[in-house]
Amino acid sequence: MIKYSLLRILRDRVTIFWALCFPFILATLFEVSFGHMNDSLDQIQTAVVVKRDGQTAQTFQKFLKEVQKEDNDLLAVSTMDQKEADRKLKSEKIAGYYLLGEDVSLTVAGNGVPESVLQSLMESYDSQAAYLKTILKEKPQQLAAVTQKIGKNVLKSATVKEVTLSGKKVDGMIQYFFSAVAMACMFGCFLGMEAAIRLQANVKAVAARRCVSSTSKMKMALADIAMVILVDYVFVVLFLVYLVFGLKKDFGNNPAPILLITFAGCLIGASMGLLVGSIGKWGEDVKVAIILSVSLGTTFLSGLMVSGIKGLIEKYCPILNRINPSALITDALYSVAVYPDVARYRQDVAIMLLMGALCIAIVFFLTRRVRYDSI
Amino acid sequence: MLVSEIQAGSAKRTKYTGKWNKRPKYHNIMEGMSANMIKIENLVKRYGNLVALDHLDLEIAKGEIFGLLGPNGCGKTTAIGCILALLRYDKGEITICSEKMTPESYDLKRKIGIVPQEVAVFDQLTVQENIDYFCGLYLPDRKKRKEYVEDAITFVGLNDYKKMYPKQLSGGLLRRLNIACGIAHKPEIIFMDEPTVAVDPQSRNHILEGIRKLNQTGATIIYTSHYMEEVEQICTQIAILDHGQCIAKGTKEELKQMIRTGEKITVEEAALSDQQLEHIRQMEQVYAVDYQEQVLLVRFDGTDHNIVKLLQYLQEQTICFGRVYSELPTLNDVFLEITGKSLRD
User: What is the ipTM of this complex?
Assistant: First the structure.
């Protein structure tokens, strides 16, 4: 019975696509689209060309030094002549160079993120220039202190760097990958629904045939549920392996809690599918539509499509985040991989296990209903 | 040893030697039991305001091929659903082998096989895997099951298709697979709900032949159909259902004796006057005359020399006519006389 339950799941191409292939495709697309966004911000190669070594040039160089002090990884500044700067810009060894004369000007060859950062730095500097000039004129002894302060502010406005409570460096895009893991767990509901329908004699002829056999419905349900959770879990673990080792996403150094979170996620995903499959006499198409809405709806609310939506829900309707399985999964992953919050992690996992167990209990109760009004 | 030649597909011929007469030991427990395998008393089933089964009473004896005949929607499938404890019913009692049938009657269920109207197999499993799976729901012993599955595959003539998936099979072969899944565990009671619907004549004959063989090995078969020819061909007892009621029951001969028609004679292309038609109506044993578009249909309540008498009259009257043929009553005539409508209506 278990062997054939497994074969039935693994040979169902549509289910395999949604439960296994789709998360892989989505994560790959995420990586291609914005996976290297943080990498390009890490170190911007730039140059300074001093055309006239006056007050402006000195002030701007001091300002750049302050920026570098604040974030060593953001800028790499070298001083060179204009000929060399042009050559390096052409060969893309630098993203742009600042020409320092009476004013400061920026020369770039493209319009990517590094160029935007350089532009932003210069614009911020310009906006403070008048103020600096006044300081220089009236209180030149305070120039260094003011420049340092402005440098910090300008850096903040040019690029915001997140730092966790644990001091870990955060990949700003990791939330999308956490949501993708949640989605992979939730797609187990397709497997669960298929399994449930195949025990509903009033929906499928094959279920009627199973129901009149001498094997109890409970036994069949148990075998199917176990296989669904197992297969979904294996798929999600494969997906995690791909994210961690293939796409080099940082899920922390402790795999045990991550595995427990995804197991709880698979349990709740599969059991929600079983529940939808077990209730009502709707056709398979209607149930698929419900499942699709549930899985995509919950992952949407967990921030898969719109960044920050989970924060908004937390602010205005926090209970939704406590019962949304996808939000619980991403929250628990954050609690383990980004900021250490054991209590939060435990609470999320406990809620997921409880909800999963509740769904399965309802499924067993509904499956017990062994005679139908019509078939 | 059963030996038969069956034809699978257009050109392929498969020879098989079935082992279906080797009944499993559990058949012996039936000895000494009541002759009635299935007893239905006063069964009422309603779907809202519609009465699907109206105080239905049936008794099915061991070893019969029991035909449930009736038009679509007469309650055949509903009756089977109630017997198998799939459907909730409003009133009545159902016993199988003198035991009340409930959804938890697993010992009883072990003796039952079902071939549903709709093909009920898993698309993701091959022919062999499907049969093995459904057989496994009744028979946990793997070794024994392997043997039974092979027997079932041979019995339905799917040896050349066992590694194929259901989607790769033709309609007739799918029906055979559907049957194999229901009989692989060698049940004592087999329910077959219209197993030949949408099946080509070749596969239909094969299926009907198979049902006879199953019966010869001791299985009691409950066969539902709206094809009266099939029921006449294979059933030893027949119950005719209409509007959820059993309107007649017996052997096909007994059913035919219930009605007045003994013989029907049809005369084609006969030009008759009203007076001549009246003369025919007055003939001995004639009880009904129908004349439409120059086709004369005369019903006699006996079978003695009717055709001679009718032809003699036509000759005397110098009436030209075309083809003449005589028919004995069918189950459709039985249904027609009892309900006033045809089975096909």
Answer: 0.79
